[in-house]
Amino acid sequence: MAESTTAKKMIAVVRVRGKVNLTPEIAQTLRQLNLAAQNTCAVLPLTGSVLGMLRKANGYITFGFVSDAVLKELEAKRKSKDENIYYLAPPRKGYGRKGIKRAYTESGALGDRKDDINELLLRMI
Q1: How many other C-beta atoms are found inside a 10 Å radius of the C-beta of residue 36?
Q2: Which domains does the chain have, with CATH numbers?
């Protein structure tokens, strides 16, 4: 039971959109989240400041609670052991039916996926 509560406190954040038409404020937020390029992932603790950054960059990222099994697979595929950045491939079968400019609740790719982020990460590994 303690392992599942630990997993719930970690959030996987994936940058979905590129660098075109970024405001300097959102670009700075993405740099603080360690998401420099499209299809990169960062696993962060769930804190108030991280939630504020997720809210600000919501139009460029997707996020959710990462499970322990998926986190282990990400760790195995990581190239650089000293960073908290995971460079992933584009997802097999795409991000969503309506693309990367709509919210996940509208069959798109952006925003909070909750536990469904694990399925996306497995398609990107």
Answers
A1: 14
A2: 2-124 (3.30.1390.20)
